[in-house]
Amino acid sequence: MVLFWAPLQGLEDFLKSIFFRWISTVYVEVIRGTPILAQVLFIYYGLTAVNIGALTSAIIAITLNAGAYIAEIVRGAVHSIDKGQHEAGRAIGLTEKQTMRYIVWPQAFKRMIPPLGNQFIISLKDTSLFSVIAVGEVLYMAKQYYNSTFEIFETLIMVCIFYLIITIPTSIILRNVERKLDV
Fold first, then answer.
1. Which long-range contacts (CB under 8 A, 24 or more apart) does 16-23 make?
2. What is the pTM of this model?
3. Contact (CB, 8 A) for 87 and 96
4. What are the residues whose beta carbons fall under 8 Å from the beta carbon of 122, sequence distance 6 or more?
5. Is the confidence at residue 129, as pLDDT, over 50?
6. Cα dist. 119→52, 114, 135 in Å?
7. Contact between residue 109 and residue 77 where contact means Cβ atoms under 8 Å apart
């Protein structure tokens, strides 16, 4: 059992290290501090040596961007739990990990739901920016259509309706989840 635990203990120490925290902070601040449009253009055009396709570049950009915002949502939710909750868990004999698992995370998860839902909708709408690298998403297809028909206004109205058809049910589902979990 000791042989199994020893490598995990080393990994745990690494995750707590200053280096990991520094890298995480730089990642979150750089991604949150730059527009997603610049990020996708950097990935698509800037990493030409890797030869990444348009769709792959778009997926990487949206993943990195959403990941940084989700990291901040999770961090903020965990830090929003009163320190007394940590102390109470320790007072009843729970370890730090048990306190996080049974006391802090359930409360923090409830607080994460509204901002995570908002982030999902924002990320969904941000995909429209990928038309700049010719990813065949809704706005790109609409642009191709109105370039050939010159029906710009009608086409953009349809694009907006399409996004509303996706985002309104998502918002309703999220509100129902929040209500059920009493957020």
1. none
2. 0.79
3. no
4. 69
5. yes
6. 26, 9, 21
7. yes
